[in-house]
Amino acid sequence: MATSGTPDPRPEFDTSQPTIARVYDALLGGKDNFAADREGAALYLKYVPDAGRCAIENRQALVKGVQYLARQAGIDQFLDIGSGLPTQKNTHEAAQEVNPDAKVAYVDNDPIVLAHGRALLATNNSTIVVTSDLRRPQEILENEEIRNHLDFSRPIALMVVGIHMHFHDDEKPDEWVRTLMNALAPGSYLFITDFVDTGEPLQKGMERAGLESLGNGWIRTPERIEQHFLGMPLVPPGLDFLARWFPEDPDADVPAVEELQPWQRILMAGIAKKA
Ligand code: SAM
User: Known Gene3D superfamilies for this protein (predicted)?
Assistant: First the structure.
């Protein structure tokens, strides 16, 4: 494995403030977090007692999406932005379980992800970790390590999973993703999960927890989330709540929306294909 990044590869972490990656790790039951992050996670649990289950279900959706992309869609290159701290099953493990030759480039702006990725990937030559920022898509595209690792003349799955909620619409996150998608070959895919707003109090609770703990974590209507896909057609079953979303088996017997627990109506997933 190789690693790179603009910040010092051995950064001094500020542990006094919660970070998105470490709060999420705490919600997933991980150990790579500090007191401030656990306090942030506690706020989530205060407003959404099942926030940990939401995080776990998001990881399960990540695996479902990656395995659909590797198996059914035949994708063997993944650019995973906002990849998060390593946890139980990561993108490279999910993809390489289907195709051992699949290549993965992880990008996260929190340098702790690089530090932990280095240890996890010490023996994996098909996977790299880079510190960079979705807000600077051109920097990601020009990153030498990413360009040496992924072949941009062939389809790539761009993963922006569990990260849109951390940007306000005023920042125009869709434009960053558009810059990235424009650089990808026809036949590439875009995989997104995001917090949804269908008017339920628990969804609003998730937003409140994010704003109080991290200063971000907005919810969006399904119509607004659809716009993240930049007009590209979604593969079946389209955009749906995670517990109803099975891209590998879109005809699966799934519970009705009303049958889901309220905490299961907080996140939606979708995958679109670039023509
Ligand atoms: N994608 C993983 C998943 O769905 O399980 C992790 C999601 S976690 C909630 C969001 C991740 O996005 C964190 O690791 C955080 O550090 C990262 N992140 C936040 N803002 C970012 C940015 N501007 N550029 C790159 N990564 C960012």
Answer: Vaccinia Virus protein VP39 (3.40.50.150)
Residue 5, in any domain of the structure: no
Q: What ipTM is given for this predicted complex?
A: 0.99
From the CB of 109, is ligand 1 less than 6 Å away? Answer: yes
Give 133 Cα–ligand 1 centroid separation in angstroms.
9
- Our mutation pick for probing the ligand 1 site, out of 163, 190, 245, counting the most ligand atoms within 8 A of Cβ, is 163
Residues 47 and 209 sit within 8 Å (Cβ to Cβ): yes
Is the shortest distance between the CB of 265 and ligand 1 below 6 Å?
no
Other Cβ atoms within 10 Å of 167 Cβ, number = 17
Is 263 inside a domain boundary? yes
CB of 149 closer than 6 angstroms to any ligand 1 atom: no
Give the closest residue (by CA) to ligand 1 atom 12.
Answer: 82
**With 50 as the cut, is the pLDDT of residue 8 above it?**
no
Is the per-residue pLDDT at 7 higher than 50?
no
What's the gap in Å between 256 CA and the centre of ligand 1? 30
pLDDT tens digits for range 115-138: 999 888 888 899 999 999 999 999
User: Residue 80 corresponds to which tokens in the numbers above?
Assistant: 């995973």
What's the CA gap between 143 and 255, in Å, rounded?
43
Q: What was the pLDDT predicted at 12? A: 65
Specify the higher pLDDT residue, 103 or 8.
103
CATH number at residue 69: 3.40.50.150
Structural domain total, the chain: 1
User: Is 8 part of a structural domain of the chain?
Assistant: no
SS (H, E, C) 214-247: CCCCCCECHHHHHHCCCCCCECCCCCEEHHHCCC
Is residue 35 in a domain?
Answer: yes
Host domain of residue 127: 15-248+257-273
Atom of ligand 1 nearest to the CA of 134: 24
